[in-house]
Amino acid sequence: MSFALTPTQRAYVERVRALAQTDLSGGPQGDSDRVDRELLGTLGRLGLLRGLFGGEPDEPPRDAAAMQLCLLRETIATVNTHAETALALQGLGSYPILQAGAPAAVERWMPGVVSGDVAAGFALSEAGAGSDAAALALRAEPDGEGWRLSGEKTWISNAPDADVYTVFARTTPDTRARGVTAFVVAGDAEGLAGEPIDLLSPHPIGRLTFDGVRVERSDVLGEVDKGFAVAMRTLDLFRPSVGAFAVGMAQAALDAALAYANERQVHGAPLIEQQSVAHTLAEMATRLQASRLLVYAAASAYDDGADARHITTSAAMAKLHATEAAQYVVDQAVQLHGARALQRGHLLEQLYRDVRAPRIYEGASEVQRTIVARGLGKG
């Protein structure tokens, strides 16, 4: 399943797989809604957090390579979804700092992100601004040379435990996307509080409240009133990699289903010899491979510097198809295994819970269809 990968990329996948299988296999698969500091430290020590960003491993991160990010997330997801999620949340929360932060902000936060000593969060969503992110209402009210942030955020990665957040707030009222500014906010800032959210599959996701949190002009990421572009650039990068996460989960489910279908004896023959089972496995494999190729195509478009519309449309297609396909593949794997797959602690029981969220976060499937249709309409 390495079609279109260069020898260097294939070698990278093998290196990541070896590290994951040695240091992450059999580890905790996520039973807490708080940041796993020990796991972040392990990911940092292995150099996997550095892999979120492009360039040489021994250099400070300067940008991100979409294909490397996708290969990283896909490979780790086949071994440990808890570790994959911890890694992905680090990248999502810190990439806006790297791409748009002042040099002082980059120097303050990025070394700790890469080492695993700093947990980062991405604070865009609100109770009334999920799929319609431009409707966000967190206020940034002028205060001397800076601003005071007041309001709430929800479904925030690594909240309430992150050491630093990328926060999107409204600096100009009644202007939707044109009046949003991105800020870097320390997790221990005065007036910032939060609580975890209990999810179907526990992850460090929570709510944040801002009670006059002070931010300075040096905390602005990018330009004032142009923070929405920072958010969209980050999402264009990470949406294909959400698809890669889904591909990794689907691959793990398909591998489990194939192994079981070949071992399980029914009426004196392996289960896979039943035509309905063989056809189901064929459909699972086909949807998985189609997803993988869409993800790789979207990542390549990003890395090759394609025009913004093509990047956005390709990213939406990749996330849409891969997450929907993964839901199907995992569900069919559960069905083939029968009741044993429903037992707490079974690989497929965990995947069944983990696979549901990616169809919602970073733009629900319905939003991705709208993005694709809008791209088609522009010709």
TrEMBL record:
<dbReference type="GO" id="GO:0003995">
    <property type="term" value="F:acyl-CoA dehydrogenase activity"/>
</dbReference>
<dbReference type="Pfam" id="PF02770">
    <property type="entry name" value="Acyl-CoA_dh_M"/>
</dbReference>
<dbReference type="InterPro" id="IPR036250">
    <property type="entry name" value="AcylCo_DH-like_C"/>
</dbReference>
<comment type="similarity">
    <text>Belongs to the acyl-CoA dehydrogenase family.</text>
</comment>
<dbReference type="InterPro" id="IPR046373">
    <property type="entry name" value="Acyl-CoA_Oxase/DH_mid-dom_sf"/>
</dbReference>
<keyword id="KW-0560">Oxidoreductase</keyword>
<protein>
    <submittedName>
        <fullName>Acyl-CoA dehydrogenase family protein</fullName>
    </submittedName>
</protein>
<dbReference type="InterPro" id="IPR006089">
    <property type="entry name" value="Acyl-CoA_DH_CS"/>
</dbReference>
<feature type="domain" description="Acyl-CoA oxidase/dehydrogenase middle">
    <location>
        <begin position="121"/>
        <end position="213"/>
    </location>
</feature>
<dbReference type="InterPro" id="IPR013786">
    <property type="entry name" value="AcylCoA_DH/ox_N"/>
</dbReference>
<feature type="domain" description="Acyl-CoA dehydrogenase/oxidase N-terminal">
    <location>
        <begin position="6"/>
        <end position="117"/>
    </location>
</feature>
<dbReference type="GO" id="GO:0050660">
    <property type="term" value="F:flavin adenine dinucleotide binding"/>
</dbReference>
<dbReference type="InterPro" id="IPR009075">
    <property type="entry name" value="AcylCo_DH/oxidase_C"/>
</dbReference>
<dbReference type="Pfam" id="PF00441">
    <property type="entry name" value="Acyl-CoA_dh_1"/>
</dbReference>
<dbReference type="Pfam" id="PF02771">
    <property type="entry name" value="Acyl-CoA_dh_N"/>
</dbReference>
<dbReference type="InterPro" id="IPR037069">
    <property type="entry name" value="AcylCoA_DH/ox_N_sf"/>
</dbReference>
<feature type="domain" description="Acyl-CoA dehydrogenase/oxidase C-terminal">
    <location>
        <begin position="225"/>
        <end position="376"/>
    </location>
</feature>
<keyword id="KW-0274">FAD</keyword>
<dbReference type="InterPro" id="IPR006091">
    <property type="entry name" value="Acyl-CoA_Oxase/DH_mid-dom"/>
</dbReference>
<dbReference type="InterPro" id="IPR009100">
    <property type="entry name" value="AcylCoA_DH/oxidase_NM_dom_sf"/>
</dbReference>
<keyword id="KW-0285">Flavoprotein</keyword>
